[in-house]
Amino acid sequence: MRKFYIETYGCQMNVADSEVIASILTNSDYIITNKIEEADVILVNTCSIRDNAEQRVHGRLKLFSNIKKKSPHVIVGVLGCMAERLKEELLENEKVVDLVVGPDSYRDLPTIIKTVESGQKAVNVYLSQDETYDDISPIRYDTNGVSAFVSIMRGCQNMCAYCIVPYVRGAERSRSTETIINEIKELETKNYKEITLIGQNVDSYLYVKENNKVTFANLLKQVAIAFPGIRIRFSTNHPKDLTDNVLQIMAKYNNVCKNIHLPVQSGSTNTLQNMKRGYTREWYLQRIEAIRNIVPECAISTDIMVGFCGETDSDHQETLSLIEKVGYDFAFMFKYSERKGTFAARKMKDDVPEEIKVKRLNEVIELQNKLSTISKLKDIGKIFEVLVEGVSKKSKNEMFGRNSQNKVVVFPSTVNIPGDLVKVEITKCTSATLIGKLI
Ligand code: SAH
Ligand code: SF4
Ligand code: F3S
């Protein structure tokens, strides 16, 4: 049996895809290894979202070429979004690369590897209208055995002006409800306690069979009812599509976690329009109101991007004021990075100077750090149900897990095991974690 090693960059979709790839290869002639030095095939599942994501992969390829100098039989493959974006160019510019396979062509990997073994380089970057890998049972090769991602859709066609995803992931398509439920059943029998339903815009999930239409709200309800012993999370929601219906289901079912990731990108209606996000500042704030009213204990996190084309200082001030107003529990924060081929790259000018981007990003980070701390200070004295994930990195006498709001909780314990559900009273916090004691 030959061995493959796989490294994953990018978002949760890529993590889930690597589990599908592991399944496809394991069902062929390969076994997985986590030791790069013993691999016959080295695969890297890549991300194109920002330039620095791609630079990291070019760095890894340098390392792989050192390995290949010592072991010339090793096959190196680039998979995922960067493979889709750069196609043959990758073979031309990176001598170490033997194969390039895009996100919808993983079923072809065993054949492609054979082609390479016969002495040719190979590329498959075909994008499909209907591939969802729904019959493939992913191999969870790198998990804590407690929580898993379940992909419910692929692709995206929102065409936000800055974003490469629609070009590298293709058209949006939803996976069948039955196969989603079956995958969760399998996870349940393997003792998993938490699943995250994932897609680039879960709110536009729509599975049509005969005359029956399953929306995201329907799916969430079905999963919540079918798996009362499993915690359910989902990501990512889109502000233009998040319905009250989804919020009502979150509120009604205890096992649906009280956390929403609702990327805002900017607090300025002007910038949002330039970004083609499909909502205004007021609309977004009204969605936040709806969350606060319907699911009062819900934590809210977001993505923010500074320095998009045409962003003025007053637009930036509006972003800061929106962040303050919402009081996010957590945020991912980025500087705009132009991606070739997107609407913004073709039609707009990347006109915010780098030093202004850095300054704005730092202001956003500073404000959010303050808000993240406030959010945690508010939890002191509260009692949370925590799903134990493992032993704390800092001390073997402490364990960690997450509460429903997705905050990390650390507490002294040597008796629990991953998968336990425990009650913890919060006594203090750091900027990143809640600290408490078992009750
Ligand atoms: N589907 C999700 C986001 C996927 S990408 C959504 O619509 O919200 C994750 C985040 O990366 C985005 O929310 C955005 O903040 C950031 N991002 C996307 N394209 C980017 C670019 N060209 N430059 C910088 N950040 C970008
Ligand atoms: Fe990109 Fe917009 Fe689709 Fe998110 S919704 S993946 S930001 S195009
Ligand atoms: Fe990156 Fe592709 Fe995800 S570009 S963010 S890995 S969909």
Notes on the structure:
This protein is of the alpha/beta class and 439 residues long. It has 4 domains: 2-124, Methylthiotransferase, N-terminal domain (Rossmann fold), CATH 3.40.50; 143-257, 2-Layer Sandwich (Transcription Regulator spoIIAA), CATH 3.30.750.210; 291-378, 2-Layer Sandwich (Transcription Regulator spoIIAA), CATH 3.30.750.200; 383-438, OB fold (Dihydrolipoamide Acetyltransferase, E2P), CATH 2.40.50.140. Helix content is 36%, strand content 24%. It is built from 14 helices and 21 strands. It has helices at 12-26, 51-70, 81-86, 88-93, 109-117, 165-169, 177-189, 216-226, 244-252, 269-275, 281-294, 313-326, 343-347, 354-377, and strands at 2-8, 30-32, 41-46, 75-80, 99-101, 122-124, 147-151, 153-154, 173-174, 194-198, 206-209, 212-215, 231-235, 259-261, 299-306, 330-335, 383-391, 398-402, 408-412, 421-429, 434-438. The strands form 6 sheets. A 6-stranded parallel sheet has the order 2-1-3-4-5-6, with helices on both faces. A 5-stranded mixed beta barrel has the order 17-18-19-21-20. Strand 20 (421-429) and strand 21 form a beta hairpin. Helix 8 (216-226) packs parallel to helix 9 and helix 12 (313-326) runs parallel beside helix 14 (354-377). The radius of gyration is 22 Å and the shape is globular. The model has no long low-confidence stretch (mean pLDDT 97). Bound molecules: S-adenosyl-L-homocysteine, iron/sulfur cluster and FE3-S4 cluster (F3S). Iron/sulfur cluster binds next to helix 6.
